[in-house]
Structure formats: structure tokens, C-alpha cells
Specification:
10% of the residues lie in helices and 40% in strands. The chain is mainly beta and 171 residues long.
């Protein structure tokens, strides 16, 4: 159980490090190189769903923390980080409904996606870890990491399902 908690904390720390503004490069907003016109990045369409209602003290609305890693088996490695984003004021749909969010300029490759909703507003960019009452995806004994295949110049779709409300704060 301790390894699972450490995994969430490390993912959160790495996300915080990479949420800082990046330097501008020579590519256009659609991810294509302005000099050659070739697409270098892809897009991600994230569909959220939930099989659990919000927990005590939560209403299913909060900041959504999204992390994309290069390999689900390497969640604890900072070099595995590919993309991080905080989407403000997201309401997780009730069971049976879906919410779709889109992101651009994602590095192509086979990645893994980990997401949590800060339903009780106790996380921040400096400390982006889920806590008691937050909605998460869990699988086995750790965070759910959904495969995401990003192709340059194309939009890839991924579904992420929340299936647990944390019953305790992470250490």
C-alpha cells in the first residue's frame, strides 16, 4: 500500500514540475513545424466518466489533474513524464454520462494517462496529490494508468473512468 501512495505522490510531483510555463518553440499552435509544415505533435481527446458518486464533502466539481507518462510501468520515474495539465472547475459527469476535453501539442508515442479530480479543493500546482474525498481511477493496488497512443498530426481518443473516492489523505 505504501508503494501505491508513493506512486501517486511522485506522479503529482512530476506533474507540478512540468506545469510551469514552457519556452516557446518554432512550431505553430497546431503542432506543425512552421518551417517545414510537417506535423510534430498530436492531439488528445479525453473522455471522462465515473462509476462512483462524489464523496462526503465533495460535489463532483473541482480542478482536474491530468498526467501523461511515457510508460505506465514507469510511473515512479520523473523522466517518464510527457504532459501535465490542470483543468479548472470541471464537473465529473454522473454515472452513465461523459465529459470530453481536448488537448493539443502532445508528443507522439505510446503513453499512459493518469487523472484525478480534486473534489475537496485540497491540492494545488505546488502539491498536486489526491486526498481524502477526491475522485480517482484505481486498478489493482495503484492508480489506473490508461494506455494512450498519440500520433503526430492526428487526434487520439482515450476514456478515463473514476471508480473510487479516496477515503483517507495520502501521507
Amino acid at each position: 500500500m505504501r508503494k501505491t501512495l508513493n506512486r501517486f505522490l511522485l506522479i503529482s510531483l512530476v506533474t507540478a514540475l512540468f506545469l510551469m510555463p514552457a519556452c516557446a518553440d518554432e512550431s505553430s499552435s497546431d503542432g506543425s513545424d512552421t518551417a517545414t509544415g510537417s506535423a510534430k505533435t498530436g492531439q488528445l481527446s479525453l473522455t471522462l466518466s465515473s462509476t462512483v458518486p462524489p464523496g462526503s464533502g465533495g460535489d463532483g466539481t473541482g480542478d482536474l489533474y491530468i498526467t501523461l507518462v511515457s510508460d505506465c510501468d514507469q510511473l515512479e520515474q520523473p523522466e517518464a513524464f510527457v504532459f501535465g495539465h490542470i483543468e479548472s472547475d470541471v464537473t465529473v459527469p454522473e454515472s452513465g454520462a461523459e465529459l470530453v476535453l481536448s488537448f493539443e501539442n502532445i508528443a507522439p508515442g505510446e503513453h499512459g494517462l493518469v487523472v484525478f479530480l480534486d473534489d475537496v479543493t485540497n491540492a494545488s500546482a505546488d502539491s498536486p496529490a489526491p486526498g481524502k474525498g477526491d475522485m480517482v481511477g484505481f486498478e489493482g493496488f495503484g492508480p489506473r494508468c490508461v494506455p494512450a497512443s498519440i500520433v503526430a498530426g492526428e487526434k487520439s481518443s482515450v476514456v478515463y473512468e473514476f471508480n473510487l473516492v479516496l477515503l483517507f489523505d495520502l501521507p
